[in-house]
Design goal:
Helices cover 39% and strands 16% of the residues. With 683 residues, it is of the alpha/beta class. Helix 7 packs across helix 8, helix 8 packs parallel to helix 22 and helix 10 runs parallel beside helix 11. The radius of gyration is 28 Å and the shape is globular. The protein binds adenosine-5'-diphosphate (ADP) and magnesium ion. The site of magnesium ion has 5 residues, from helix 11.
């Protein structure tokens, strides 16, 4: 029984299906399959994509292949210099994945036994067996793999037979949905309707192919729906009418004259974009994106000036107290003496706190800096007109929406992020905001010289560090990231601290996750005051803090980090005028692929470019900040393989934003794909 446009059927509970009893339902719910629609994306095992992957018996030695394999056995020899090995297979043969310098826990995580995994790398042949050394692209949780990997095996309690019965039932009752795309778009996908595409996707005769029209259409649906939702949130926020802020350039000129540098073109450009928003009658919801050290702070501070002059208050929120203090001091230095600027810190005396709270309530304080504490319930602003949030990449779309609601209609919002992301991901991650980008770095800044060193050459490194300290410079020493164990992280940093403290007595500070916030601030302050010359740490140091005197960063076990992350770490140094260096330490000689990655880092200082390359090499799931960014997890679409579809959707959305569009025709798409409460306000 086909029901015209009855998408509600797809949203109904799985127990509606024949053959889904309580037990099956529980198993499915555990897999986050709650309704019939969710079931559509679990595809039978026979769906492997031959256009992308090879079978083991088709491999060519010396060529790079992507293969889908099942890890069967770990061989972790306890002998130094012998690599870790994982026996793997597919239906056609056997292959070993070889790992030099990778922790067992990491290997177990990326190659779980008896699960189908996609790996990629150069194929070699050794002792009668194929092997891949340090596979470059390993994916267990990529949405792409999920889509082609049927998880309903016997061990999970649902037989192929039952599963097929359920699916054929759904396909039989699949409602005919009215087309939501226009003709031009539809033609790009060979005019395949949604219904047809779903049926093809499940047809065992069809080998699922990411390049086929039905697959691409479905991936595009997914991308478009997520972009549409983001775009609607943005439009909604923009529709909020506010009292615009008055603009003069008097105080701007005064402030600029106090700087000992000229703003870069990109700083000027983004400042204009922000100012236009502030002086408009619509509420601003904007992201200021720029690499570490690109000079976002000054842009944000200057943009606050006119808001204050329009008799509104400004709140500047940052992740740590030290950063709050740095920004506060800068504002004090730059802004007119008669402005009342305060910092609200957890360490402030309670009488001091009381005074600030009073001042904010009475509008005698014009600007306040602080951590999230400035948004506590008891803090009431008399006339909040602008919220600035620094280093915000930990917020997702929903949290951002709440934040924008918080300040009320007259409150403009600026978020800042130092995490460059590949272009294809911008709309997915930040589609709900307008985006301003600073690409250009202040030109006095010398590029950080990046070196790689074997761990066995530690004596050279120590010598280098000695020289730097003699020159009055300071050093960050970042300890290995051991993915499976935070505890080991601490231990390795403690060990390194003990070692360095012997070489450089009393000059070394130690920071790791187990140290509480107050102590952490003390240690960072001692480093800022140059009491400590070397700061040993895990990766916990916030990126935003300016340590102009820190000139060297040493990163141990550097192959454990993504390129974007290494780039961010590297950005902690080189903020002063001296030549800065970054030393990447490795346990043993680099593989070809590792060399390739490191060379990207050595040859480029552009975070955007590095993040693109990183995504190509490691898959988008690994990009720094991606997991916390709240970006939608796509079921079919993949930002690497479907780059063209992401760009197409972006174009379509941009065009739609210029016109007043009736979204009614997209209702089934949005309801099915984004079953979020936000949708209810849209359609
Ligand atoms: P980020 O974008 O990482 O937040 P900051 O705003 O902390 O960067 O700026 C880093 C350093 O660069 C600061 O010391 C700041 O004073 C300096 N700076 C900012 N803009 C310029 C410029 N146009 N020319 C020279 N130095 C600048
Ligand atoms: Mg910053």
């Amino acid at each position: 029984m086909k029901k015209m446009n009855n998408y509600e059927y797809l949203l109904s509970d799985i127990t509606k299906l024949n053959g889904v009893g309580k037990k099956t339902m529980e198993i499915l719910k555990k897999k986050k399959i709650n309704n019939i629609f969710d079931l559509l994306w679990r595809l039978p095992k026979s769906y492997t994509d031959r256009s992308l992957t090879s079978k083991i018996n088709e491999l060519q030695i010396g060529h790079v292949h992507t293969i889908r394999i099942v890890p069967k056995k770990y061989l972790f020899p306890r002998i130094r210099n012998l690599p870790n090995r994982v026996n793997c297979e597919d239906l056609t043969g056997k292959i070993d994945c070889i790992f030099f310098n990778s922790y067992e826990g990491y290997i177990k995580k990326i190659l779980p036994l008896n699960e189908e995994i996609t790996v990629s790398g150069k194929i070699t042949f050794f002792k009668n067996k194929y092997q891949i050394t340090n596979p470059t692209y390993v994916s267990t949780d990529s949405t792409l793999i999920e889509a082609v990997h049927n998880k309903y095996s016997l061990t999970e309690g649902i037989s192929e037979k039952i599963y097929n019965k359920i699916i054929s039932q759904i396909l039989k009752d699949l409602p005919l949905l009215n087309e939501w795309h226009d003709e031009v778009i539809l033609k790009k996908f060979g005019n395949q309707s949604w219904n047809e595409s779903i049926i093809k996707l499940h047809d065992p005769k069809n080998i699922a192919n990411y390049k086929s029209n039905f697959y691409k259409r479905l991936a595009y649906d997914e991308i478009l729906s997520s972009f549409l939702v983001n775009s609607e949130i943005r439009k909604k926020i923009k529709k909020i009418k506010k009292d615009s802020k008055n603009f003069t350039d008097k105080s701007f000129k005064k402030t600029i004259s106090k700087l000992n540098f000229k703003l870069t073109n990109d700083q000027k450009k983004t400042l204009t974009e922000i100012n236009n928003d502030l002086s408009s009658k619509s509420k601003m919801f904007r992201l200021l994106q720029g690499d570490v050290g690109s000079g976002k702070t000054i842009v944000a501070l200057i943009s606050a000036l006119n808001v204050i002059e329009s008799n509104f208050q400004v709140a500047f929120m940052v992740p740590t107290e030290i950063l709050a203090k740095q920004h506060f001091m800068l504002a004090k230095k730059l802004f007119q003496k008669d402005l009342n600027i305060e910092i609200l810190s957890s360490k402030s005396e309670s009488s001091e706190k009381k005074r600030i709270i009073e001042g904010l309530k009475k509008n005698t304080i014009q600007m306040v800096f602080g951590t999230h504490a400035i948004f506590q319930k008891k803090i009431l602003f008399s006339k909040l007109g602008y919220i600035i949030i620094d280093e915000q990449h930990k917020f997702g779309v929903r949290q951002r929406k709440l934040l924008s609601d918080k300040g009320g209609k007259n409150c403009d919002v600026l978020l800042m992020s130092a995490t460059p992301i590949p272009r294809t991901l911008t709309m997915s991650i930040y589609g709900d905001m307008d985006v301003s980008i600073i690409r250009e770095k202040p030109n006095h800044r010398k590029e950080v010289k990046t070196y790689s060193k074997l761990e066995s050459k530690i004596d050279d490194v120590i010598k280098f560090v000695k020289n730097e300290l003699d020159e009055g410079n300071q050093v960050f020493w970042v300890c290995p990231l051991i993915e499976e164990s935070k505890k080991l992280d601490h231990q390795s940093s403690i060990k390194k601290f003990e070692f360095l403290n012997k070489v450089f007595p009393k000059k070394v500070g130690l920071l790791h996750g187990k140290i509480d916030n107050e102590k952490k601030d003390q240690i960072l302050n001692k480093f800022l005051n140059k009491e400590y010359k070397i700061l040993v740490s895990t990766t916990i140091i916030e990126v935003g803090i300016d340590f102009p005197n820190a000139n060297v960063i040493i990163i141990e076990n550097a192959n454990k980090f993504g390129l974007s992350q290494l780039h961010q770490l590297r950005g902690r140094v080189g903020r002063g005028s001296k030549q800065a260096s970054c030393i990447l330490m490795f346990k043993s000689n680099l593989s070809e692929n590792a060399k390739k990655r490191i060379n990207i880092l050595k040859s480029s200082n552009d975070g955007f470019k590095i993040s693109e390359e990183d995504m190509k090499l490691r898959g988008f799931g690994d990009l720094l900040g991606f997991k916390q960014s709240g970006v939608k997890k796509f079921r079919l679409a993949d930002p690497i393989h479907n780059e063209d579809l992401f760009l197409l959707a972006e174009k379509v959305i941009k065009k739609m934003e210029k016109e007043e569009n009736d979204l009614t025709k997209f209702k089934p798409l949005l309801k099915l794909y984004d079953q979020a409460d936000i949708i209810n306000d849209i359609v």
